[in-house]
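Project channel, design review

CF: Before we commit to the Planococcus massiliensis constructs, I'd like one complete example in the thread so the newer folks can see what an input/output pair looks like. Taking tRNA(Met) cytidine acetate ligase.
RD: sounds good, go ahead.
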Amino acid sequence: MKATGIIVEYNPFHNGHLYHAEQARKKSGADVVIAVMSGQFLQRGEPAFADKWTRCEMALQNGVDVVIELPYVYATGQASDFAKGAIHLLEAIGSESFCFGSEQGAIEPFLNSYALLTAHRAEYERLIHEAIQTGISYPKALNNAYKALTGSDAGFADLSQPNNILGYHYIEAAKNNRFAIRPLTIQRIAANYHDPVNKDLTIASATGIRKAFFEEGSLEELSRFMPAASIHSLVSFHELHGRFGSWELFYPKLRTIILRERPESLKRFAEVTEGIENLIFEAAKKEAYFEPFIARIKSKRFTRTRVQRMLTHIYTGFTWEQLRSFEKPAYLRLLGMTETGRHYLHAQKKNIELPLVSRAADLNDAMGGLDIHASYMYLSGMGISDLQKEYSTPPFYLASKPAK
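CF: and here is what came back for tRNA(Met) cytidine acetate ligase:
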């Protein structure tokens, strides 16, 4: 059986994600679609809207055959680390290709960009360093350095676009590690990451969907943007827990942690740097709600996403020492599978390069322990009393696809 991989968050699963899964299968000619999915915390430094089991269920009901959890250390990392972890997992599980959505829509510009930056690495690093010295953010410095090398040549990928940036790093991870996995891309359609919901369309960004829910408080109003199975899963989640994940919900616990730690000890947490710990502490003293709190911290140099990743690590207790101790994923954590996915895993079991783990009890190394702890912190922030859910929840199994 031939497999293709996709790298996802499904926060939540919407019609654009359905299109991606369908097109990945079609473009690759694969029998099986494997999703590497972030767990309880996400790459832009946020708690997930719904827990990883709910999001896994949505994926398997809508075109995905296997869901593997991306470990916390990679799921909450900067783009290059996020990509590195995900591509390692897809290579290890035997995926012949990976397919990402991009603003570019064609793979050749990404390959051209990779070749250019590899050939001119020293100059690129120098340009980045010089740009950072002017006080701009790291992402802006990267983009300025890249533009200086490429000029106006249309043969290179536009790395000012968020999905193009991730796509480039996926290719970089595969090429740098000399993996056999083949890159593919499809055109991202209709809605960009930050776009609000447009009720004249049927595709909206996950960000727009979450924002619309928190403003309007109704999932029914958003049903045109998500498959029916996704709406059903989210309704069930909300009925059970009475809420969805957000920093506004988690902020009281985060604020308590910050004020307990004090500035000098905040520096030990991953990504907290350049004296920003003092700003974080002072903002926590002054603000009782998350939005005014983060507004006091973010700046041109420290983007909202970068600050949120710091806050995620403070909240979970993830330190610089821990971050530096991991080189690559140590296991494949199975969250769920369809019958097709089960057949694939059975056929590939002798070829899979990492331990395939289906129970939290078998995560007996430092990386697995971190995943379990992060899940505890997520469940606690959600007000879920049963923290043993991490141990008691088996992989989701979908024996047959639901009727359309």
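RD: helpful, thanks. Strands lie at 3-8, 32-38, 66-70, 97-102, 182-187, 332-338, 356-357, 396-398.
CF: The chain has a mean pLDDT of 93.
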